[in-house]
Design goal:
Elements: H1 13-26, H2 30-37, H3 42-59, E1 77-83, E2 86-91, H4 96-107
Antiparallel strand pairs: 1-2
Length: 109
């Protein structure tokens, strides 16, 4: 007499996700749910641990975020306090020759 074995089909990932969603909504213990769903108790335990591992991998992925502090449209500014109530503010792009002339003018005041 030939021996026949029952062929067990493994559920697809989508089916496992549906079963886990049903389990989470059921508020049953894993043992109770597995018994009602006709699956082994170890199956949801394994699927849950794999789902948790996938979720933690996604949660720890790095996301590149632009540095918004460097994206200002205002040009760089240098401020000099020259004393006697004179403050000089020079924006980037100011030519050094013009700055030297301005400083000589201010010294003569």
């Amino acid at each position: 007499m030939p021996i026949t074995r029952a062929v067990r089909k493994c559920p697809t990932q989508a089916q496992r996700d549906q079963i886990l969603t049903a389990y989470r909504r059921s508020q049953l213990t894993q043992r109770e749910f597995a018994s009602k769903a006709g699956i082994s108790v170890s199956a949801p335990q394994l699927w849950l641990s794999k789902a948790d591992a996938r979720a933690s991998t996604r949660a720890t992925a790095f996301v590149q975020v632009p540095n918004l502090l460097t994206l200002t449209s205002d040009p760089a500014v240098s401020r000099l306090h020259l004393g006697d109530g004179i403050d000089l503010e020079v924006r980037s792009g100011f030519r050094t020759e013009e700055l030297a002339t301005l400083l000589q003018l201010l010294r003569s005041l």
